[in-house]
Amino acid sequence: MRNSPLPRMSRRGRVTVGVLVGVFILFTLLGWGIDAYTDYLWFSEVSFTQVFSGVLLTKLMLFLVIGALMALVVAGNLYLAYRLRPLLRPHSAEQATLERYRMILAPRLGTWIAVVGLIVGFFAGLSAQARWADWMLFRNGGSFGVQDPEHKVDISFYIFDFPLLRYLLGVGFTAVVLSLLGALAVHYVFGGVRLQGVGDRMTAAARAHLTTLVAVFVLLKAVAYILDRRALLLEQHVSPGLYGAGYTDVNALLPAKEILAYISVVVAIAIIVFSNAVMRNLVWPGVSLALLAISAVAIGGIYPLAVQNFQVKPSLSEKEAPYIKRSIDATRGAFALDTTEITQYRASTGSPPPNLAGDSSAQNVRVIDPQLVSEGFTQSQQSRGFYDFGEKLDVDRYTVDGKTQDYVVGAREINDEKLTAQQRNWLNRHTVYTHGYGLVAAPANQVCETGLPYFVSGSIAADAQNETTRKCVTSTDALEADQPRIYYGEQSSEYAIVGQVDKNKNVEFDRPQEQNSDASELYTYTGKGGVPMGSFFKRAVFAIKNTESNFLLSDAVNDNSRLMYIREPRARVEKVAPFLTVDGDPYPAVVDGRIVWILDGYTTAQTYPYAQKINLATETRDELTGQGSFALARDDVNYMRNSVKATVDAYDGTVTLYEFDEKDPVLKAWNKAFGGDLVVPKAEIPADLASHFRYPADMFKVQRNLLTKFHVTDPRTFFSGDDFWQVPNAPDAPQNGVKQPPFYLNVKLPEQDDTRFQLTAGLTPANRENMSALVSGSYIDGQPKLEILELPDDTVVSGPVQVHQRMVNNSNVASELALLSRQGQATVLYGNLISLPLEKDILYVEPVYVRSNSQANAAPLLQKVLMSYGDGGTYVVLEDNLTQGLEALAKLGQTGGTPSTGTPGTPGPTTPGATPSTPATPPPPPTGDLGEAAAAVDQAIENLRAAQQAGDFVKQGEALKALDDAVTRFQQLQAAEGGGNGTSAPPSVAPTASAGS
């Protein structure tokens, strides 16, 4: 009688299961197919199909090859174990129990083995396709021309070959372990391995099969030991906290790994020979494996530990010195620190020179904080509530009227979050409000009388809201764009459908105008950006992808339509070049009449021998991260190059990758992997574009942080850590623990031949707050240049946190800041504290903004500039603008720090940190001219309150200016009449604690 091993399923059940499985596969494949097809259309739009096809085919190849190999190895061993089953099995209770399982498996054993193999191969293939980057680098990597200091192997082996070899070794271990477990299970089920009964517990065939798999595993372990010798140069071993092989690793672990590799080969041979030819049992193979384990513990563990404790620790500095030197040199080479120039800068902490106001570098100090003026840009240049300049603006330089200086720039875009409920319906959101308009800039070293930036633009200067604001707006050809519309920007989070609905109708909202006219505000896109939607099939595909039926039902989507998606510049570059890490701060510029976004791309690696490994997200995080600057991925890297400058056209979305580092082997490998024409050669970079390149912020942060330690090149000094530096915290909020960001300046620093647009930052000694060095990054003839101005150890110069505290706690400054806060009705905000080294000392400049508390989303207005020279406690002024501040400092230098006229904001002879005293009894009401001045102050306060209640930020700025003038006149009259030292405020505005200090 034939027994049916499995109960039969009814026909209806089989049909139901088949339908469910088919629907699941259909939707899975449909989703994958739609994603792949829409990606192909997008890559076709930007003309980078070689990236799409290259990555896709590589993933598919790895999926099929690794998946098939893993499936064949596992399935083959399962089938071999079945073929090696004994034909006769002794009778026992164990075998009787297993018989039911054999009856289930045997009739369909081929199917079971195929299913197991397919499952294993499928997951192995999924894992393998994630290694597409390793495979491409392995196939296309070239030479670094630099050898590692231990094995004398070219660095390219570690960057291009080592990651894939380690992965393949892992695949081999996985295949052998799965095969061993699977074969053991099959042998047991079919009687090749027995736990009960008479005779041997394992047949000769099963023993030969299983011991061969064990021997292969041990041989793979021998290969692992060989690779481990190279891996020692990548791990954290060297004291103190450095990467690479140290004394113990080189003198104990490296020989131990080699010995263990030889032992592994001997053990593998012994397992096969003794198990199947000599002893024909598992005793000696077991002894061999035990000896291998004991050897691994003794040779690879105990012996290196003894060397470390008895040879290295008693003279750690001396023993580790050569290996510390290796780590220093490798880190400096891996992060392009080896060409850094260190210059001794002797700050004299003397008095401000008489010609300070005429110093060109001092005149170019940036007082406009890109983070604080964004709202002012938006409110002054929007005309419509949905326009926005983003959380943080950018800094670039332009030549206007023959003068080159740095400008704070911003692109005016549509913020989808600010659209009204009516404007946010599908048709408006995707077909009407599709683009922004224009680029606006402001000189970084001056403001208008209202406290807002002095706006300079190319084509939208007339968009200012009123006559008062127009006085602070001008136009220039330098910012004139032939096509000012912005379809691709940092706030372009939604897809847009553009193109003419019919030949007589425009639907896209265009340039905002003061005199509203529907006809003049509508536009139709005429560029080449976006995917053409000229077929029903494409519209159906995008309807499914976006789960939006309007792609099929709306008249706005027709044969003339183009669909724009993935519109953020950073996302576009990351998709075009998935091998790049893109800088977190893209910036717009007008280049050859086009508005383009400029982005910095980094090539990175994780396997540079002896180089320090850092986390990109941690090293690039500072006060601005997440507030207009993107956070980088949490990748651990030990090699980094700014190898690519990328641009994204704001009108048509064209992405261009320019080679910037001509020597980077990693970029050369990627370029070769994608056909050799992925990047435009550096020699073909347009001159107008190159003039807007700036030292990349995230690269600078990484280098700055590493230089806090790796400026020390002597290994013994490095070991002691006595000369380490640190990045100071944000000066106005040091307790928050966020780092002070670097700042762009167009200045000439000491020891430099000319003015440069450069990124600068101050550094302080480890665990102290005084200044120790200033770092700058710039380009000279298109090549990056890092420079350090190091202060002598015997000179104590205040650091950013100390300077800020001393300036705001100066008695006269504290009174002025309290006045600006208007008894809590406004908040005092501090802008970026600039530390500018001049020829003999450091000039500190910190803009002071005031934001009304009575108006929602009030724009901060620049009211004062807080400045200090030298040590930060003796020469402090608080003036209306940069020029007045420089003049006041120069005047203080002539009087030795004592004000001669009692001008507000100049320091008195009080001790730094003192607070203004409060008289026990109020003074009598002023009379005469002094009384009129006091009345003017009261009237100015009333005007300011009225402006706050009306929500007119322009009038607030005017009122603040009038209040400042009235207070100044009152104090001057008071000083002239002998009523004090010129720092007291009228009774109605007696100073209170500053809300911002």
Share in β-strands: 15-25%
Mean pLDDT: 84
Q: Kindly state the percentage of residues in helix.
A: 40-55%
Structural class of the secondary structure composition?
A: alpha+beta
Oligomeric grouping of the chains? single chain
What's the short story on this structure?
With 997 residues, this protein is of the alpha+beta class.
What's the SSE blueprint?
Layout: H1 11-46, H2 49-83, H3 93-105, H4 109-129, H5 132-140, H6 155-189, H7 204-231, H8 247-278, H9 283-312, H10 316-334, E1 341-344, H11 360-363, H12 374-380, E2 387-388, E3 394-400, E4 403-411, E5 413-414, H13 426-432, E6 436-437, E7 439-443, E8 455-457, H14 467-470, E9 473-475, E10 485-486, E11 496-498, E12 508-509, E13 522-523, E14 531-532, H15 536-545, H16 550-553, E15 562-564, H17 569-576, E16 581-582, E17 587-591, E18 594-605, E19 614-615, H18 616-619, E20 636-637, E21 639-649, E22 655-659, H19 665-673, H20 687-690, H21 697-710, H22 715-720, E23 725-726, E24 743-747, E25 756-765, E26 770-771, E27 773-780, E28 783-790, E29 797-798, H23 800-808, H24 811-821, E30 826-830, E31 834-837, E32 842-852, E33 861-869, E34 875-879, H25 882-895, H26 928-950, H27 953-976
Parallel strand pairs: 1-28, 8-9
Antiparallel strand pairs: 2-5, 3-4, 4-7, 6-10, 7-8, 11-15, 12-13, 14-15, 16-18, 17-18, 18-21, 19-20, 21-22, 23-25, 24-25, 25-27, 26-29, 27-28, 30-32, 31-32, 32-33, 33-34
Helix pairs in contact: 1-2, 1-15, 2-4, 2-5, 2-6, 5-6, 5-19, 6-7, 7-8, 8-9, 26-27
